[in-house]
Design goal:
Elements (H helix, E strand, L loop, with lengths): L4 H4 L3 E3 L2 H11 L7 E3 L13 H4 L2 H22 L3
Parallel strand pairs: 1-2
Length: 81
């Protein structure tokens, strides 16, 4: 992640709040409101389970699928997809 990535992309997705905070520091904020956690697009916004700590890769996979489904629905609703 580099600061100029903020200008290149419409959305920047993080896996957890700590990642999002670091992205915001690198970018110098989020004036265009394009930085989100992936699961912010789900019915149950939260951090994605980190298999490094949980050892549960299935849960991480499920979280990612849930987040992507929500993100794609969001894009369809905005007619960006």
């Amino acid at each position: 992640m580099r600061a100029d990535d903020y200008l290149k992309y419409d959305y920047i997705l993080a896996m957890e709040a700590r990642n999002k905070d670091r992205i915001l520091r690198i970018c110098g904020g989020d004036p265009q409101k394009k930085v989100f956690r992936l699961l912010d697009f789900s019915q149950n916004p939260r951090d994605i389970a980190d298999p490094w700590y949980t050892g549960d890769f299935s849960k991480t996979y499920s979280d990612i699928v849930e987040g992507l489904k929500g993100f794609f629905a969001f894009l369809r609703q905005k007619r960006s997809l």
